[in-house]
Structures
1.
Amino acid sequence: MRESLKERRLIGLAAGFLIAAFSLPVLAAIPKPPLYGERYCGDPDFHCITIGSPDAAREAGAESARRSGRESWEGLWPDERERVIVMKVNRMNVRLKKGMVIAVPNHMEGKTYMDFAPFPSKLPFECEPVGEPVCRLVCENCEDGDASYKRICESQCKPKGDWTCGPDGAPVGEKLIIIDLAQLAFAAYAEDGTLLRWGPVSGGRNWGAYVIKDNLTVVGEFEISRKYGRGAKSRLYPRATKDKPAGGAPVPYFMRFHPGYGLHHYHTVPGRHASHGCVRLFFDDAKWLNQEFAEIGTRVTVRPYEAN
């Protein structure tokens, strides 16, 4: 006997509940990757603390523990210089939560966050010959009727590092922003290859077998094509729904380097990749890059998620 419309609806509803019941535990079981700072836990120059444990309370000190009742960035490291170091080392600006593992340098006295840069302080600013020189004949005095020819040879060169080389074999100096997705960090280099600033990033979410390709940050060579100010908002995220139009998420100091991708501040840089494809930055880093360093045309090199 054919089921009635009401019976078919009830069967469909029950099937939906069963699918949801079996799907939710699977989704909930998707493991998040470890926090970036955990890779330092075996390094003799660092020690690691677990938020909410006695070692974190000792790090904070009795007075801080009594005052706050829980660990915070300010409570654990009231000295701003040290706090900035620890936050950048861990690639994190989010609120500390129980169970988080945080890496702390053993010796921070007299140091700044630049002493913990995962990039060289100076890039190799030179070129090296590749293959045979390319030669051509150039006519001299052709307009005066007393023509003579001169043989000119130019070396074919490649840069040592992230630079370009001119036809004379000399490096072409230019500003450079490197986004290293494997190290969750950016670097800003001056025209002569000097590291001016570095900071944490969070790129497109890449969680192993659960990666969503549309969320990955593009890798390759690009340049800044547009810049926006502190009030910039996304035109794409959050996704459009029936009740809410698309866009509207704040993306202060957005700097586009590829259609649909840019560098910008975001309030959660969580020590792992978590964005929809853009590169999240700490507020001070985004502001500095936008207002004091990056120009339209500034080169951007995005390195892959896994180091070569």
2.
Amino acid sequence: MKVLRLCTALVTVAALFCATDVSGLERQTAYQYDEKGVSIPAPAAYAVERVWVAQNSGTSALSEPADLFVDREGMLYIADTGNSRVLILDGAWTLLSEIKTVWLENEAQSLQNPQGVFMGTDGLLYICDTGNRRVIAVDGQSKIRREILGRDLTGVRETYDFKPERVSVDSLGNIYVVSSSIYQGIMCFSADGVFRSFFAPNEVENTLSTWLLSLWKSVFTDKQKENVEKSLPEPYNNLYIDADDFIYTTAPQAGEGGDLKKNNLMGVNILKSAHNLGAGERFGDAELTVKDGKAAENALADVHVDGEGVISVLDANTNRVYQYTQECDLIAIFGGSGSLKGQFTEVSALEKWEASYLVLDRQDGSVTVFSPCAYIENVRGALKCYNLGLYQEAETLWEKVLNENGGMTLAYRGMGRAALQQNEVTKAMQYLDKGADKYFYSIA
């Protein structure tokens, strides 16, 4: 009888394990940070909807793809760097065209290792043709309508190497180009491709070594100064322009406060103070990531900002996506390193397709589609309702969030702020205290 009971129990456990869905498995590894920077468990925010590889659409496998872009019509563009081509797909993942050759005044020219792609509202596809050291804008027949060769960059030494890696265009047609070989900032070109200026250059981080170097240089001769390595600002590696023409940038080595920026038209970073991050006061993970046996800093590789203002950043060291509000409150973490679905080897780009997020894996040559779970839909719905002044609706959604995740600091803040807007002061103070929201607590 004991043996029979044991077998029955084992069969039951096995059945439960086999019936467990993906989101249930993700729920065991999902986490967040509290206001003290301590990691705590959290419900899964996004689940894997599908993993796409180029072979599924009847073409050869991707080779070291660097970038992807989704336009307003839901078309997907992939810069397949290793294969020197750009793929264009529709919302059903059907391959519509493959650009390998472009035309300049009836002369056929081959793309060489394109690293960036962007579809402008002018109907032109902007490509960072990195191997050919240019940015081109092509029409639907792959004819070059605009070519930027990076000449006459004011303030750059004559021996600079123009290797464009990312490109974006604002609502006025201004073209912004990022290159890791240019430290003066983002290159800004007019709509007709004429260089205008450098935009929002990073500052040199003040460290002990840079201070000592400047001290020594004050007593060096001119010839000695020429032989001393200069302290240069860190270059950008990616950018994103939102609907209001704010330019978000990533620079992995720029240090805290410089790795992610929201630049206004004057090139001033207006992103809220990082004190709300709840992750060691920096974007990404609080703990240093161990990579190849060594501690590695977070390395932001891409940024996306949707119409609701949610900021999503992609970290190349952890292979994770971190989502924040405009006040830098952490709302979700998903992805990770590994070989399972929803994990990556070497991420390179991030995009949003309707409600889902797309993550491009450079080494694996795949695109993983993450669809939102009910939990994150409630979080985002509560944020949206509050911003629209629908405070009761926001409060109802925050209650649902707290039922699933009692450790979410942002939910307590949201409950408290909603209560405050409805003049429920005592209730507001209770929730704002739990949410460590000192500013609104003092108002209450």
3.
Amino acid sequence: MKYELKRIAIWPAVKISFLVHLILGFVVGIFYALFFALLMSLPASMGDADLAALSAFSGALVVFLPFIVSISMAVFNTIFIVIGLVIFNFFTRIAGGLEFELAPLAETAPVAVARPMAPPLPTAAPPSPTEAPTAPHSPFSPPINTGEEPPQAPSL
């Protein structure tokens, strides 16, 4: 099946782009914060008193830098995505859309996965309600209650 991509809706792409870049920016901001905190702690560990105050600033930087990077990355990258989508939609209107072909799942070859087959478990048939359960009876085992009265010994 052939399809043609003629237009990309801007608002759904903006929402997805903003959320993805917000999360990605937070992760990148954590790495930036840890890197700058490490760099700012080096002069304080060498005993330089003037630069020791700078290491106090690194604590605030570690806390706020992930949020600053995530918001700025989300805003700026979303603006670039919007500009790119406007340009894409403009050129697809003039030159035509992008053609791509999709194959239905039935035409694709199935991937064979070799798994050992377990033999089916034997199932025991439940006893019918009319049959009394039969168990081996020894002289030392208690009598089986079948609902009948046991035979009476003859009285003398």
